[in-house]
Amino acid sequence: MFSFIKRGNFKAISIHDVDDIVTKIDLIDIREPYEYEDGHVPNAKNIPMATILKDPEKYLDKEKEYHIICQSGGRSAKACSELSTKGYKVVNVTGGTGSYLRPLER
């Protein structure tokens, strides 16, 4: 069982808890393409942070919830903070890809 932690205007969840629901969520990896290609959590879609923050309405639907992941959780927390103030439902994945225990996809 896992739980969400409220962080300001958005929630957070541990990378270890995401593993149980990874096929049921919209997971967005905001790292740069070269980082993503080096290895990412299965089912994660790559939209770099600068891209998603510049034009979120192009990539996100305000009616859906998105889990945001980066390497360690810092960039994703910043992105979640900015996106949540714009009305998007986002969850920061703490620990990030660097703490994922299963094999990464390439």
TrEMBL record:
This is Rhodanese-like domain-containing protein. It comes from the Bacteria. CDD domains: RHOD. Pfam families: Rhodanese. It comes from Clostridium manihotivorum. Residues 27-106 form the Rhodanese domain. InterPro entries: GlpE_sulfurtransferase, Rhodanese-like_dom, Rhodanese-like_dom_sf. SUPFAM superfamilies: Rhodanese/Cell cycle control phosphatase.
